[in-house]
Each structure stands twice: as C-alpha cells, then as structure tokens.
Amino acid sequence: MPKxxxxxxxxxxxxxxxxQGQVDERLMPDLDDDDxxxxxxxxxxxxxxxxxxxxxxxxxxxxxxPSVLGQEASxxxxxxALHPGDWFFPAFRELGVFLTLGYPLSEIYQYWNGDERGLLxxxxxxxxxxxxxxxxxxxxxxxxxxxxRCRGDGIAVACYFGDGGTSKGDFHEGLNMAGVFxxxxxFIIQNNQWAISVPRRRQTAATTxxxxxxxxxxxxxxxxxNDVLAVFQATRQALERARQGEGPSLIECETYxxxxxxxxxxARRYRDPEEVQRWQRRDPLLRLRRLLQxxxxxxxxxxxxxxxxxxxxxxxxxxxxxxxxxxxxxxxxRYTYAELTxxxxxxxxxxxxx
Length: 354
Ligand SMILES: Cc1ncc(C[n+]2csc(CCOP(=O)(O)OP(=O)(O)O)c2C)c(N)n1
Ligand SMILES: [Mg+2]
Fold this sequence. Notes:
This protein has helices spanning 33-58, 72-79, 95-101, 105-112, 137-151, 169-181, 228-243, 273-280, 284-294, 300-322, 329-334, 342-353, and strands at 12-14, 87-89, 157-162, 185-191, 194-195, 198-199, 220-224, 249-254. It is of the alpha/beta class. The strands form 2 sheets. Strands 1-7-8-4-3-2 form a 6-stranded parallel sheet, with helices on both faces. A two-stranded antiparallel ribbon has the order 5-6. Helix 1 (33-58) packs across helix 10. The termini are far apart. Bound molecules: thiamine diphosphate and magnesium ion (MG). Thiamine diphosphate binds next to strand 3 and strand 5. Heterodimer of an alpha and a beta chain. Its EC number is 1.2.4.1. This is Pyruvate dehydrogenase E1 component subunit alpha.
C-alpha cells in the first residue's frame, strides 16, 4: 500500500510587456493600435484624476481619499476586458475601473467628498456600490453571479478586492460557493503588497495568493499587475470562461500601492523608502508608453496634448461637483430601501418637523 501522489498543482504567472516596453509577441493579445492608445489614455486619465483628488483633499475640498497610484494597469487592463452586460463589484480602490467603464467623473469626486449620491450608478452601467467594509461584497458578487447563471444571462461578474481582503472569511466562503455552484464570477485580487500597515507576508504564509484558488477547485493565475497587457489577457480569458458557463476564476494582479493607504495615513512610518523606489521603476504607465513610442503611436507632443485635454476635463468635473447643492435630509432616506419602513417614516417626520 504505497503512499502515492493523488493530485499535484502548479501556479503560473503571466507577463507580456516588460519594463522597457518590449512585448512577448507569442503572448500578445489581439488588440489593435487604437486599443493600445485607448488603454494608455485611460491609464493617464486615472493617474491625473488621482493626482487631482489628492490635491483637492489637501486643500480641504475632498474627504478621505485612497490613491490608486501604481495600480493603473491592474485596473484599466482588467476593466478593458469587461463587456457592457457584465457586472463590476468594487472594493474601494478601483478608480481606474470606474473610469474605464465611463462612470461620470464629477460623481466620483462627489462620492469621495462624502456625498453618497455620487454612487447613483447611471442606468447603462452595471456597477455595485463601493464597499468600504473589507471583503464583505465577495459573497454578494457570488450571489449575483449565481443569479445570472440561473437566469441564463450569459454575463460575467468581476469582483475586485485587495490582498488584505483574502484574509476575510467572506473571501473563503465566496470562493467555495463559487466553485461548488460554478458561478460565472472572476475574482480579481489587486495585491498591492500592503493592507494599511500590514505587509503581504503577514497576510498569509502561502507563496502566492493565486494558489488559494486551488483549494476551491477553480483556476487561479498570478499576473504581473503592472503589465496592462498581461492583466487584460488573463481577465479576458477568465471572463470568457465565465460567460461560456465554465465557472469562476481567480486572478492575482501583483502590483504596488505607491502612495499612502489613504490621505489619513503616512506610509513612511511603516515601510522602507527603497521598496517604494524599486516599484517606482516598474511604473505601469511608462511601460505602455514605451511600447507605443516604439510602434510610432505616441510622442512627447501627444503626451502634452493628452495631459492638457484631461486636465480640462478634470476642471469641468470638479466645477460641476462643487456646484452641486448639498444633499437634503430626504436624500439620506431615499436610496436604502425601495420603500421606507414605518420607523424610517417616523424618523423622517421627526427630522423635518422636530
Ligand atoms: C471589515 C473591515 N475591517 C477593517 C477595515 C479597515 N480597513 C480599511 S482598508 C483596510 C486594508 C485593506 O487592505 P487590502 O484589502 O489589501 O486593500 P488595499 O487598501 O490595499 O487596497 C482595512 C483593514 C475595514 N474597512 N473593514
Ligand atoms: Mg492591499
């Protein structure tokens, strides 16, 4: 009765675009020149929106804000693979996904200014509200995917969360359910190496986060999260599998949070500046820009023009947000339930009439 291996597993990592902007042609996704330029413009929009948000916060014109600096490829690359019918379940650090899907800029500023009306999603977009409570949206995303499967919608659900989110029970429950019921959901981990001041190595003893998929019987892959082409390719394949009824997948985008956790944090207190510098050299925008330049699709003049155009858009979005009248007492009650409960009706009366 010898002891024998009954199963063995491997974890793969996908990289397509290197730091010099060179691609592995064998792995190059089917994207034309216009797609590549569009991806770059979206990453640039994400970076400049983010920068403006940080400035506004410092001027007292925005609430606490979580920067996405350094994570643009993970966000734009994955969102670029979504189809209009698919659903996006965000955590809270997915600005680039919102922008890629065409969410109104002023409403994003509005939300981070503490006005929940910024989350009133336009009818044509399928976006769940931002979820600040770490990982709690994961089971909801799985439920939505299961519902889509029952209805035969032929769509996929993309559920985003961070490395910290993988330590929540919700993550394990969600992946387990998704595997058992073959829910059409793609779990996208933005492993940015930190959960506030807790480093990735304190989150799990596992070598990768991608391998966590194995225990739930679903495919898992790690991608270079600063490589927009690898992120796009892995997400596109996973979404396609989901839409075809082939079940869930997990993608670990290995990236880095270059900024503080939020504007209420000071990361210099807990991390080595050399680590930050190392990751700065792996800037996801620079890589794609180098590829575009190699192919004659981008140059310094186009860069200046694109930045100016984006800055004008941001100016308009901020002006619009700042001209929005404050929410009323009624707004607090308006969006939680379809109909007010008797207690809420009483509370609303009390608030209005004292
Ligand atoms: C249930 C819960 N516990 C704690 C917090 C406080 N908190 C906010 S963000 C965060 C870390 C999240 O880390 P990660 O999932 O890696 O996402 P990242 O912030 O790096 O994008 C914590 C602990 C929270 N929002 N929700
Ligand atoms: Mg993190």
